[in-house]
Specification:
The chain has about 80 residues and is of the alpha+beta class. The protein has helices at about 5-10, 15-20, 70-75, and strands spanning about 1-5, 25-30, 35-40. It has a domain at about 1-40: 3-Layer(aba) Sandwich (YefM-like fold). The chain has a 3-stranded mixed sheet with strand order 1-2-3. Strand 2 (about 25-30) and strand 3 (about 35-40) form a beta hairpin.
Length: about 80
């Protein structure tokens, strides 16, 4: 954890943000008294819900996994 004064924080904000993104905690002080804490945002992850699109998509055709026509394959390969 590093502490920096407000004036210095303004001048070095980009570097302080990089440090916070690297999981370092930065305390910003005014007149020697802590006034703010700079930390990286926590990523919010939630478990996936299976079946959320059930019944919302049309039927899957029988030839869904059939080979693509040559012209479509050529387009993917840049030919």
């Amino acid at each position: 954890m590093q502490t920096t004064n407000l004036h210095e924080a303004k001048a070095r904000l980009s570097r302080l943000i990089d440090a916070a993104a690297a999981d370092e905690e930065i305390i910003i002080a005014r007149a020697g008294k802590p006034i703010a804490r700079l930390v990286a945002l926590a990523t919010v992850s939630r478990p996936r819900e299976l079946g959320t699109l059930a019944g919302k998509l049309g039927p899957i055709p029988d030839d869904f996994d059939a080979a693509l026509p040559d012209d479509v394959l050529d387009a993917f390969e840049g030919a």
